[in-house]
Design brief:
Largest interface: A-B, 46 and 47 residues
Oligomer: heterotetramer
Largest sheet of chain C: 7 strands, antiparallel
CATH class of the domain at 13-55 and 153-361 in chain C: Alpha Beta
Shape of chain C: globular
Low-confidence stretches of chain A: none
Number of strands of chain A: 8
Number of helices of chain C: 11
Strand order of the largest sheet of chain A: 1-8
Helix content of chain C: 25-40%
Radius of gyration of chain A: 15 Å
CATH topology of the largest domain in chain A: Alpha-Beta Plaits
Structural class of chain C: alpha+beta
Shape of chain A: globular
Largest sheet of chain A: 2 strands, antiparallel
Number of helices of chain A: 5
Distance between the termini of chain A: 17 Å
Chain lengths: 147, 417, 374, 492
């Protein structure tokens, strides 16, 4: 599974980032609390270019270079194929950042660890970015195995 | 099918995953010469610094091998008998194999300096090394680090965090010579010095005295409670050579990571790998490559044909709050483009339509795509880089790159798990 | 002041019943009275009535006009009007039996008459259209006069009271008919009006009806487009006119007519023709709960609304066909039956005399293509 | 003039305890009401605010409140503040006051003075969840006798269609949303007079194409990529005047669809210059029938004006299969305010009168009546059907379903909701997949409500609701109004 852009309908409003940050910041998705009390940071960057915009979200590659590269075993893949970071194990070496061909994985704001999209693993239901996209520009796509 | 892996490290873990991706039943045996389990060498400096508990050193937890039904034997392999399909251990036991993987890694180079045998002169390569150094740490004392490669720098940082005075002695004119350009090395050196680490470049240690002194080539004697030797590593290919396998700087393998013996594969720091950029075979002791090589070797051993294209030099290191990421051919030449803003900088080397090297300091977020562009040798018009370097960001990456990544998704060359 | 039927629309609950002998052997009114009396509780004493077919064989070629008058003045006015349009062979008061149960009865007269040739010629109307037009005019324009029935060899006997009392009042045991229908009414408004009781008739057609047509206004406004004057504001009147319009004016078969008034659901339509019928006569779909018995000289048809929101039971025994709101009303007069069934919504019961082919063909009215231009 | 007397209409309040400086309001307001400076300071320019709520709706913390600008004129029951502001605006510009959407003036709404009936005791109400309930409606000439060939008809599974709204006046995504919804719900959408974009040809079977005075985009191909053709004579928002799509909305794509030069004004003349009288209409109707091989019903749409009954009768006799009447609440992308607010009559009156007139003339079976202009909800639908319409067109309600907040500034082309605009960046704010779902939901909800109301009346087919004025009672109406509507008073 991965979050898929439909950039034809991306408004570049940035709500995906707001809700992503809130979902991962320990305040249970409460936007105001997360932004007023926490240090919210979205997992995926919103890219705007020539009137087009999209979020640079994780593709959850089958042969994920970030997992190959991780020196601590912090980057893992769960049974659903979601690539996630065990932040307890991450030492912030950013080898994963270096090898992600999409530039999706980013340092945390304090540079102490890497952060990435985990499809809101551990939270209930749809990833926050998809759930709160006001224009259906994001959707959770099941990867179909191509021949 | 009996699979045997010599060495319990990154490549071994990768190999187990590779074998299991194709063969759920075969018997896997790992011969763990260090008898420490599968841990990550680059993390031992964190152990030394006291910033991480030892439990976090493990690359894969013990359950991992149990889950994968891989048996781990503590013991050092001393001989391989290819004719019999047997590995002999130092305690006399032998293990039979159908398919064998050599993941014997590398060892630190010990220069032939006078006094190098002093008990307070150490390498920092294994867990055991870290434990031995731990006993020698003396707050307020001076530690001399010979060599400013990744291990040297991380050792210097760890000892500095343990409140030792640290002096780095580097034979070359700059630190991190395999990673940085002179321009970027200057910034890194300044950063180290600002943090209180003394950096002596273009200097060589001539001898180490019993009086706890390191004598340099200019005659200066530095008092030292502790000396860390970090001047390089070399592959452990004795077993292979003794078994009659072809070797060069490292064990020679084909694109399936197979040695000259069809039942023996090799992966990790012990092999010669194709450098994608130069096209030559080199020892590229890089962790990301080790895992991939192990994984692909495992696939091939289990009968699932997988090609290994080789790799490029790439490294990410951070010390004292500075994040350096660099990739590409250190010996490359071409047009150099620079960008700098405060403590951050980026340096690109462009050779015609190709990006052949980049060095980033404190701007890690942009490096993933740059690595991909370098490694996959994407054609990018030089003008695009001129635009990019004005304000490096993902959005400003060359259009050709963005188109290429979209193509991966569209044509299925990139698959999601 | 309470408004009368005709001034206001009064919904009502009801009982209906019919008995017919398919060999056209006649029998007296005891049976139908006994049948409708069984359903006493389904009416409230504010309306009851009967239609009888085959009662005036000696006047078979004359229209039997049964007329209610409020007073003698109304009678004189109406008779002058009738004489202007008809050649009247015989006229007399309808014989009644004075009982304590029936009060406020109007003057009730009957006339056996045929249209005057000169009037027919002048009006350029077919005979039936002419008769129908004259009767409608009396009902709507002549104050104090009301035509209860105007068919041949048939009559409607109706009034305010329980149906069995109305039957006794009209001395129905003295009449012989091969087809009887009956109605007991439960109007939800107090003042009964004799004209408002069932059956409602037009020429030979009579309708008894149980239920309320929710589509009344739609149906009424549809019929008004085709010149029908709706004077009574009763659903029954609309039903009678709908039959008249569809069968007599539009020439639809009985089956097609039923496909209009109790149309199959779109999802159940089987033929393109039915769809066309539904589309073209959408305004005549009788929507809402009803069960009706429509009778004419050669038989009867009974049908429910299309989702059967009102009761209707049918039964046969030898030559006899019985229809009633409740099975008890049939068992009361024919304890032993060959077959008893309850038809589904929109599924008609058609009872024809043996020697007749279709309900319409036996009608004295017939298709009058030459009258369409009127 | 340096001094403007036009004070802001709205003021935007920001709850600082809630604002997280995410910048969504800034990047969503095309009118540049919000500005976040480099110091993290938020600026608000009230006078730019049109009250469209885009910022407030998207604000993730509900930090924004938009209220009327609190500047009171001395109370005056005759010279309202709106009157004053309109004069200030004209004194500054010297121009006609332009506006968008429908007539907002407080004229009597007859919908709000009509009550519906329901069954109690004497007959049962019908539960639409348990019993079949039919809304299937056919539009067109249904006078053919049994056995004759029927005229072409439109079949609707719900008697609600989407009004004509042209590409150019609204974004292509609006049309895509409505076309998909129409197909899904088995009803129709209407191209308006802006041609048929090639992306929408796949919806031909659910499309009514319009032929209006500008003749934009009209080709044989256009006429044949439709289920019906509608001649637009007038619309409720601006009876008697033509249309004017300003050049700035005529993008290359709009221009191609309309077959006119890009970035030029698209003018629809006030009259059709080939229809100066009723016999000319008859000829155009016949022409269109010939052009479509008599396979498609032809509708004629007019605004509800004073002598609408006679006009409608003439249209039927001229061969119209469907007469669409647009009441004075009908909306538009742009109209002179004085015209929108002062011309025409209510759709309720128009339908009541036209239905009766056509019945009196015996030609009601030859035509279907479609009511448009101000249908706000399913009860309005039920009432107008009971008054005599066969189906309705909804425009404003459909746009509101898609996100329109009735700010009435459609004519600027700067619609923050991506509806009344052809700007690509704004248009993409309406994802037609979502738009279609919202429009479908609206129709489904209304469908369900209509069925509930019909069930209450004891009716299970919409045929029996049509013209069933006994199901309506007037409340608070004068006797002559009741008579015109053909209903009696509540309690009567």
């Amino acid at each position: 599974m991965k979050v898929q852009n439909n950039s034809e309908y991306c408004l570049g409003c940035g709500l995906c980032q707001v809700y992503c940050a809130a979902a991962h910041d320990g305040y249970n998705g409460n936007v105001i609390k997360a932004f007023k009390k926490g240090t919210p940071q979205a997992r995926a960057g919103l890219i705007k270019k020539n009137h087009e915009s999209w979020i640079n979200t994780c593709r959850h590659c089958q042969d994920a270079p970030c997992i190959n590269a991780c020196i601590t075993g912090a980057l893992q893949k769960d049974e659903k194929g979601t690539v996630f970071i065990d932040s307890q194990r991450c030492v912030g070496c950013f080898t994963c950042v270096m090898v992600c061909p999409f530039g999706h994985i980013q340092p945390s704001r304090d540079s102490s660890r890497a952060i990435k999209c985990d499809l809101c693993r551990g939270l209930s239901g749809t990833p926050a970015c998809v759930a709160f996209c006001p224009n259906g520009a994001l959707r959770l796509a099941e990867e179909v195995d191509r021949p | 099918m009996r699979y045997v892996i010599i060495g319990n490290c990154i490549a071994a873990a990768g190999a187990v995953e590779g074998i299991r991706s194709a063969d759920q039943k075969g018997e896997i045996t790992i011969i763990d010469g260090e008898k420490r389990g599968c841990y990550t060498r680059p993390l031992i400096s964190y152990l030394l610094a006291g910033s991480k508990p030892s439990s976090l050193l493990y690359y894969r937890p013990e359950e991992f091998f149990a889950q994968q039904q891989a048996r781990v034997i503590a013991g050092r392999a001393v001989r391989i008998d290819p004719a019999e399909g047997q590995v002999v251990l130092e305690d006399g036991r032998s293990v039979d194999y159908d398919r064998l993987l050599l993941a014997t890694g590398a060892s630190p180079v010990i220069p032939g300096l006078p006094g190098i045998e002093q008990p307070w002169v150490k390498t920092l390569y294994t867990w055991k090394d870290a434990e031995e150094i731990e006993a020698l740490i003396e707050a307020g004392g001076t530690a001399v680090v010979l060599g400013s490669g990744l291990i040297g720098i991380k050792a210097a940082e760890a000892l500095h965090q343990r409140n030792m005075k640290v002096v780095i002695v580097e034979k070359q004119e700059q630190i991190l010579p395999r990673l940085l350009s002179p321009w970027s090395a200057t910034a890194a050196t300044r950063h180290l010095e600002e943090q209180g680490i003394q950096v002596l470049t273009g200097r060589e240690a001539m001898s180490i005295t019993e009086q706890h002194q390191v004598e340099l080539d200019n005659g200066v004697k530095i008092p030292a409670q502790l000396v860390i030797v970090a001047v390089g590593t070399r592959p452990n290919q004795a077993l292979a050579r003794d078994a009659g396998l072809e070797t060069g700087q490292g064990i020679i393998v084909n694109r399936h990571l197979q040695t000259s013996n069809p039942n023996i594969w090799a992966a990790g720091d012990v092999i010669e790998t194709r450098n994608i950029l130069s096209g030559t075979a080199e020892v590229m002791a890089l962790l990301p490559l080790a895992h991939l090589e192990g994984y692909l070797a495992g696939c091939n051993m289990a009968g699932k044909s997988a090609n290994y294209p080789g790799g490029i030099f790439l490294n990410a290191v951070h010390f004292m709050g500075m994040h350096i990421i660099a990739a590409g051919d250190p010996n490359s030449s071409g047009t150099v483009l620079n960008w700098q803003e405060g403590q951050s900088s980026l340096e690109l080397t462009i050779d015609g339509e190709y990006l052949v090297r980049y060095i980033s300091i404190n701007i890690p977020g942009i490096t993933g795509p740059l690595t991909a562009i370098t490694e996959k040798q994407m054609k990018i018009a030089a003008g695009e880089w001129q635009e990019f370097i004005k304000q490096p960001s993902i959005a400003n990456l060359p259009a050709a790159y963005l188109a290429e990544t979209r193509r991966w998704e569209d044509d299925g060359s990139l698959r999601c798990g | 002041m309470l408004k009368l039927e005709g001034d206001i629309r009064i919904p009502s609950g009801c009982a209906i019943a019919a008995v017919m002998n398919r060999s056209a052997e006649r029998f007296d009114g005891h049976t139908i009275i006994a049948s409708i009396a069984t359903m006493h509780k389904r009416s409230n004493g504010l309306g009851g009535g009967f239609a009888a077919y085959g009662i005036y064989p000696e006047y078979r070629d004359y229209y039997a006009l049964h007329v209610f008058y409020d007073d003698d003045g109304a009678r004189q006015m109406c008779e002058r009007y009738l004489q202007h349009h008809f050649r009247i062979k015989d006229r007399e008061p309808v014989p009644v039996r004075r009982t304590r149960k029936i009060t406020d009865a109007p003057l009730i007269w009957r006339y056996f008459a045929v249209p005057r040739e000169d009037r027919l010629y002048r009006e350029q109307l077919g005979e039936e259209d002419f008769v129908a037009r004259v009767m409608m005019t009396i009902n709507s324009d002549l104050r104090g006069a009301f035509v209860a029935s105007s068919g041949k060899d048939m009559a409607a006997f109706k009034g305010v009271g329980y149906p069995e009392d109305i039957g006794e009042f009209f001395r129905l045991e003295e009449y012989q008919a091969y087809l009887w229908t009956a109605h007991g009414r439960f109007p939800t408004n107090t003042p009964g009006w004799w004209g408002g009781a069932h059956p409602f008739t037009l020429l030979n057609w009579s309708v008894v009806h149980n239920g309320e047509i929710s589509s009344y206004s739609t149906n009424r406004r549809y019929l008004e487009m085709y010149g029908y004057k709706i004077s009574l504001q009763t659903d029954t009147e609309v039903i009678a006119y709908a039959f008249d319009f569809l069968m007599r004016q539009q020439g639809l078969s009985l089956e097609d007519t039923i496909d209009v008034i109790a149309a199959p659901f779109w999802s159940n339509l089987e033929q393109e023709k039915q769809a066309h019928l539904r589309r073209k006569y959408a305004g005549l779909l009788l929507n809402g709960p009803f069960s009706i018995i429509v009778a004419t000289n050669n038989g009867l048809m009974a049908v429910n609304d299309r989702i059967k929101l009102r009761p209707l039971v049918a039964a046969t025994r030898d030559e006899f066909l019985y229809v009633a709101s409740e099975e008890s009303a049939i068992r009361a007069v024919a304890p032993v039956l060959d077959r008893v069934w309850s038809p589904g919504g929109g599924e008609p019961i058609i009872g024809l005399l043996y020697n007749k082919k279709g309900l319409l063909e036996a009608s004295p009215v017939g298709l009058q293509t030459d009258a369409q231009s009127a | 003039m340096t001094l403007s007397m036009l004070t802001p209409a709205f003021t935007v309040g920001r709850n600082e305890e809630r604002c997280i400086r995410c910048g969504v309001c800034v990047n969503q307001c095309i009118n540049e009401v919000h500005h976040l400076d480099e110091d993290g300071f938020m600026w608000v320019t009230d006078k730019n605010c049109v009250g469209c709520h885009r910022c407030a709706v998207l604000c993730p913390t509900q930090a924004l409140a938009i209220t009327e600008f609190p500047l009171a004129f001395r109370p005056n029951n005759y010279w309202s503040s709106a009157s004053l502001r309109e004069i200030y605006a004209q004194a500054e510009t010297g121009g006609v006051l332009l506006t968008g959407m429908g007539n907002p003036r407080p004229y009597r709404s007859y919908f709000d003075h009509l009550l519906l009936n329901a069954s109690q005791v004497t007959n049962p109400s019908i539960d639409p969840l348990r019993e079949p309930m039919e809304l299937t409606t056919y539009l067109g000439n249904q006078a053919a006798m049994l056995g004759e060939r029927e005229k072409p008809l439109l079949k609707l599974e719900v008697p609600v269609m989407f009004s004509a709204m042209s590409y150019g006046a609204v974004s292509l995504n609006v049309q895509k949303s409505l076309a998909r919804a129409a197909r899904e719900m088995a009803t129709f959408w209407n191209t308006g007079e802006g041609g048929l974009h090639s992306d929408l040809k796949e919806y031909a079977d659910s499309t009514i194409v319009q032929v209006a005075s500008g003749r934009f985009g009209v080709t044989p191909d256009y006429l044949n990529n439709a289920a019906a053709v509608e001649i637009k004579i007038g619309q409720g928002a601006k009876p008697g005047i033509g249309g004017h799509l300003p050049a700035e909305k005529v993008s290359a794509d709009v221009a191609k669809t309309r077959m006119i030069p890009a970035w030029s004004d698209a003018i629809s003349p006030a009259p059709h210059h080939d229809i100066y009288s009723i016999e000319d209409l008859a000829q155009l109707i016949e022409t269109l029938k010939v052009a479509t091989n008599y396979q498609k019903p032809v509708s004629v749409k007019v605004a509800a004006v004073h002598n609408i009954s006679a006009i409608a009768s003439g249209m039927v006799r001229a061969g119209a299969d469907i007469v669409a009447i647009d009441g004075f609440r009908g909306a538009t992308g742009a109209a002179p305010m004085r015209i929108r607010d002062n011309i025409g009559i209510p759709i309720e009156m128009a339908i009541a009168q036209v239905d009766q007139r056509l019945r009196d003339e015996g030609i009601r079976q030859s035509v279907s009546l479609v009511a448009a202009g101000g249908i706000r909800n399913s009860a309005d639908v039920v009432k107008i059907l009971a008054l005599g319409a066969d189906a309705v067109y909804i425009g404003t309600a459909a746009l509101i379903a898609l996100g329109c907040h009735l700010c009435q500034t459609c004519f600027t082309g700067r619609c923050n909701w991506g509806i009344a605009t052809t700007d690509r960046q704004l248009s993409k704010r309406l994802n037609p997949e979502i738009g279609a779902i919202r429009a479908i939901n609206l129709l489904k909800a209304w469908e369900h409500e209509i069925k509930e109301m019909m069930g209450g009346m004891g009716i299970n087919a919409v045929d029996s609701l049509r013209g069933n004025r006994l199901m309506l009672k007037g409340i608070g109406l004068e006797q002559h109004e009741l008579e015109l509507l053909g209903v009696t008073a509540a309690g009567d």
